[in-house]
Amino acid sequence: MTERPPLEGPVPSSRGGEGVLDLIRVQARLRARDGCPWDREQTHGTLARHLLEETHELLEAIDAGDDDAMRDELGDLLLQVTFHAQIAAEDGRFDIDDVADGLVAKLVHRHPHVFGDVAVADADEVLVNWEKLKAEETGGRKAVDEDIPATLPALARAAKVQRRAAGWGFVWRDVSSALAKLREEVAELAAVTDDAPERAEEELGDVLLATVAVARMLGVDAESALRRATGTFATRVERTFALAVDRGLDPEGLDEDELLALYREAKAEP
Questions:
Q1: Chain center to CA of 171
Q2: Fewest beta carbons within 10 Å, which of 103, 150, 178, 213?
Q3: Mind listing the pLDDT tens digit for each residue in 94-141?
């Protein structure tokens, strides 16, 4: 990894980073012998589920555009970082400064267009270079799915695998090429017969993978896009049912055309 350049000057935050130092002090106090019994009982394992919960709550706040909730959830997520670091520090393995130092060194190394003399054309090239620099740190190119957790949400994992592949040149050159591939995969899915469920699953997988590729070319996160679209769909479906009830109709008794007509009305509402 390249040598880290000196980082000087004031810390660009309202209290010069003192709030973070206070958090570290509070965390250590809670874990002290005369601290909080619950905090003292926690381990990396027992905290794992809280990390996942807090991450999803932060995502929800981001999707809602709620600054107050986002600030609170970022705090809860930061708590998880300091909590894990404090537990490790007590065992003499590493502490929060080791975590921060490693992160700073990584960010500096992977941003030579900021801290060095490398020129990049756009954000996509930054991501491509990121994967190459990451490979340098770990001793060479890995398989495109190596070390990418299988438990990641499928769209997020597909995007990460595709980004790594792009780092080694396997990428669509423009949006139109990616869209053409998506149309091709949709056509293949449409050709699947009802008596071939395994083939349908395979072709649907190809459609989703191609969709993620289009999202990448458009600079859109497919996971976020689907999460937002699902929320919008749920809201519109509820409006559709409400419209049906208001008109004395049974939603379950409506045919497809009638339901779609109500859905379009619901969609048109602000």
A1: 21
A2: 150
A3: 999 999 999 999 899 889 998 888 888 887 778 778 878 887 787 777
Q: Which residues contact 29 (CB under 8 A, 6 or more apart)?
A: 35
- In Å, what is the CA distance from 237 to each residue of 24, 231, 240, 263, 269? 46, 10, 5, 7, 12
DSSP assignments along 63-96, one per residue = HHT-HHHHHHHHHHHHHHHHHHHHHHHHTTS--H
Q: Which residue in 168, 157, 239 sits closest to 205, CA to CA? A: 157
**Cα–Cα distance for residue pair 64/184, rounded to 1 Å:** 35
Greatest alpha-carbon span in the chain = 72
Token match 């999707």: residue? 63
Q: What is the pLDDT of residues 175-188, one digit of tens each?
A: 999 999 999 999 99
Distance from C-alpha of 203 to C-alpha of 220, rounded to nearest angstrom: 23
Question: Is the whole model's pTM more than 0.85, yes or no?
Answer: no
DSSP state of 12: S
Q: 166 vs 109, 115, 129, 130, 216, CA distance in Å? A: 19, 23, 9, 10, 10
Sign of the Cα pseudo-torsion (194, 195, 198, 203, in order): negative
